[in-house]
Specification:
4-stranded parallel β-sheet; Rossmann fold; Oxidized Rhodanese, domain 1
């Protein structure tokens, strides 16, 4: 349990609604004030997490992010404004948080968290909130937090869907469980908001839920989602709960309950290949088919017209595509089928009728 820190009269007035809350009260608020929380990512999930934790009265907030604010971030990353485009996200976020809650100590870590530096950065905090968007970072966070015995509030959102859970290698009462226990070994990188999009308010729903889980853990109140995966579907505004079990707690025998997801039977967090589109060689160009390459390396596909996915999303189309009849075939390709699938959706929405996407390699 985090030692409490006394609150002055001004702080007590600010958090008065917490002090009135049944099952919360002054003791929990004083623990929040003494808490040190580090948030990985100041983006779509980090924005609501950081805002709510600062407003709730967390004493120290660390922010880890090496990225700069881009105009495409503003759709969902509400800590940042149009005036912040080009600034480091940690700088922008820290300024916003200090304006929201001047008494909160904000520590900006403008660097990419890796396996090499994760333990050094996370040490000294009581809790990690992981709102990162790559498997590489999530596994680095998990391993470092497990080594330090820190709980991790984890969340993800992609498209219309989100997930939230709590992982803690040192959880009491036999409830220890980590991210790899649920999702298995680190997979290749899969879909991202950049390739399949994301519903802006879904980031707020998932990020706010992550903040709730953090407050419960820090104060010892209510029932955190340790051993449970909370799955959100913005299409229905519904939540499902999946019970999780670490590998060592799986039941055996004829009367055993079916095993919960574990390292041996992991939950699939994200697909890593375009569904229904097995990797195939790029089709040969023809007079009727426009071959559009949205891969990362221009000129990698002979005979293809190259376009950046970001340009297509902004409505900037190559002349060859604009001259291509709307009902004539367009085949969109990229290295692994992720960016091409996003481009397919964009082109269909713009009126091209016969668009398919393909991956070039397995």
């Amino acid at each position: 349990m985090i030692p409490a820190r006394g609150l002055g009269p001004a702080e007590r007035r600010r958090v008065a609604r917490h002090l009135l809350l049944d099952g919360f009260g002054l003791a929990a608020q004083e623990r929040l004030a003494a808490s040190r929380v580090v948030v990985v990512g100041a983006g779509g999930l980090g924005s609501p997490v950081l805002q709510y934790l600062a407003a709730a009265g967390v004493g120290t907030l660390g922010i880890i992010d090496d990225d700069a604010v881009d105009v495409s971030n503003l759709q969902r990353q509400l800590l940042h404004t149009a005036a912040d485009v080009g600034r480091g996200k940690t700088e922008s976020a820290a300024e916003a948080l200090r304006g929201l809650a001047p008494e909160v100590e904000v520590i900006a870590h403008r660097e990419r968290l890796t396996r090499d530096n994760a333990a050094a950065i996370l040490a000294g905090y009581h809790l990690v909130v992981d709102g990162s968007d790559t498997f590489e970072t999530r596994y680095a966070v998990s391993d470092a937090a497990a080594g330090l015995g820190l709980p991790v509030v984890w969340g993800t959102v992609l498209g219309w869907d989100g997930q939230v859970s709590v992982f803690w290698s040192a959880a009491p009462d036999g409830h220890a469980i980590t991210y790899p226990d649920v999702f298995g070994p680190q997979p290749p990188e899969g879909d991202s908001c950049e390739t399949v999009g994301v519903l802006s308010p879904a980031c707020g729903v998932v990020g706010s839920t992550m903040a709730v889980e953090a407050v419960k853990l820090l104060t010892g109140t209510a029932d955190p989602a340790l051993g449970r995966l909370l799955a959100y579907d913005a299409r229905t505004s519904g939540w499902d709960t999946i019970e999780l079990a670490a590998p060592s707690s799986s039941a055996e025998g004829p009367d055993a309950v079916p095993a919960a997801p574990s390292a041996a039977n992991p939950v699939t967090e994200a697909s890593v290949a375009a569904p229904g589109a097995a990797p195939v060689p790029a089709p040969p160009p023809s007079a009727d088919v426009l071959l559009l390459d949205v891969g990362l390396v221009p000129g990698a596909v002979p005979g293809a017209v190259h376009a950046r996915l970001e340009d297509l999303a902004a409505g900037r189309f190559p002349a060859e595509l604009l001259d291509h009849p709307a009902d004539a075939p367009v085949v969109v390709v990229c290295e692994r089928g992720l960016r091409s699938r996003g481009a397919e959706q964009l082109l269909r929405a713009e009126g091209w009728l016969d668009v398919t996407s393909r991956a070039l390699v397995a």
